[in-house]
Design brief:
- With 108 residues, the protein is an alpha+beta fold.
- The protein has three helices and five strands; from the N terminus they run αββββαβα.
- It has a five-stranded mixed beta sheet.
- The relative contact order is 0.16.
- Pfam families: Acetyltransf_CG.
- InterPro entries: Acyl_CoA_acyltransferase, Gcn5-rel_NAT, GNAT_YJDJ.
- This is N-acetyltransferase domain-containing protein.
- It comes from Hibiscus trionum.
Length: 108
Amino acid sequence: MAASSAIGSAPKIAWNETQRRFETEDKKAYVEYVLRQDGKVMDIVHTFVPSSKRGLGLASHLCVAAFNHAKSHSLSIIPSCSYVSDTFLPRNPCWNSLLYSEELRSNI
């Protein structure tokens, strides 16, 4: 029973502004980003989860933290990381509205 309740609880994700990443409390799993367009666009460049922690949904939790941050700070997102573009976004299309597009460039 304890194991199922642990799976149901979301891990704590911290924003590490100096290293430009969102990470788990133990700092072993993270999403890295680069700010572009004078800080108005978050380019997510890398997602990493150690093999010992894979299969727990950590990558998705990390992406949700990054997307929530972008949304609350009015940032657009470039999904350069293949996990974000090929796995996270197809499974979570509700975030597509935050994606940076060329049409927006004239407004930036």
